[in-house]
Write a structure and sequence with these properties.
- With about 230 residues, the protein is of the alpha+beta class.
- The chain has two domains: about 70 residues, 3-Layer(aba) Sandwich (Glutaredoxin), CATH 3.40.30.10; about 150 residues.
- It contains nine helices and four strands; from the N terminus they run βαβββαααααααα.
- It has a four-stranded mixed sheet with strand order 2-1-3-4, covered by helices on one side.
- Helix 1 crosses helix 7, helix 3 crosses helix 5 and helix 3 packs parallel to helix 7.
- The longest helix has 26 residues.
- The radius of gyration is 17 Å and the shape is globular.
């Protein structure tokens, strides 16, 4: 039995963290039955990070490690048709998304223009979460941003970095297909986890403004949403 542990959803998404949304999308696209449990406390998780997955007696953390485990154990064919150059590009895209993560997180927790809307959305959607808990998480994130480095930049410099990442993704996505053809690959699940956590949020960050300005990013996000929902396992 597969159990996915991830953060709670928001704005209609199954996870308000792009990495959890990525794994959720992958599981759905591959038709693997699983239980989805939403948690906030990551202390029991590998490296104290979400998402993580429990597969029978095996516990795996990190979204890339989770997907590698699932592909290996269940022989999922989702990436079988990828060429060697496409597999190299998959790695580069995932590293770009790792960079984009920090800008997305910054826009929610650190930018005073958008923090109140994000905080209110969490408190309204999840009444069991307290304002005190969110403020504690915000303080923790401020420390992360400082040590990672992004917290030492001005806001316009932070968003310039994120928009550059999004521009690369837009350049790689065709107007009428997924990244590597007519069917989504695991790379598409990763991109979807991030774009969905920008596009579906009712928070007008510079990242969302850019996504809205690129029809191919919006189309890809909507197509992935349909593919994920259509591949749902009863």
């Amino acid at each position: 039995m597969i159990t996915l542990y991830s953060y709670p959803g928001l704005y209609g998404l199954e996870d308000n963290n792009p990495y959890g949304q990525k794994v959720f999308a992958f599981l759905r696209l591959c038709g693997l039955p699983f239980e989805h449990r939403h948690i906030l406390d990551a202390k029991a998780a590998p490296r104290a990070q979400l998402p993580y997955l429990v597969d029978d007696t095996t516990m795996i953390g990190d979204s890339d490690a989770i997907i590698a485990h699932l592909k290996r154990k269940y022989a999922t064919p989702i990436d079988d048709a990828l060429t060697h150059p496409q597999r190299d590009l998959d790695l580069l895209i995932r590293r770009t998304l790792d960079d984009l993560y920090w800008v997305m997180s910054y826009s929610r927790w650190a930018d005073p223009r958008f923090w109140p809307a994000f905080k209110n959305a969490i408190l309204t959607t999840h009444p069991d979460v307290t304002a005190e808990a969110l403020e504690g998480a915000q303080k923790y994130n401020f420390e992360r941003y400082h040590y990672q480095g992004i917290g030492r930049y001005q806001a316009d410099e932070v968003y310039a970095r994120g928009v550059a990442d999004l521009q690369v993704l837009s350049n790689l996505i065709d107007d009428d297909s997924f990244l590597f053809g007519t069917q989504p690959a695991s790379t598409d699940a990763g991109v979807y986890g991030f774009i969905a956590n920008i596009y579906f949020y009712d928070i007008d960050t510079p990242l969302k403004q850019f996504v809205l300005s690129r029809e191919n990013l919006v189309r890809h996000c909507k197509a992935m949403r349909s593919a994920v929902n259509g591949a749902a396992v009863a």
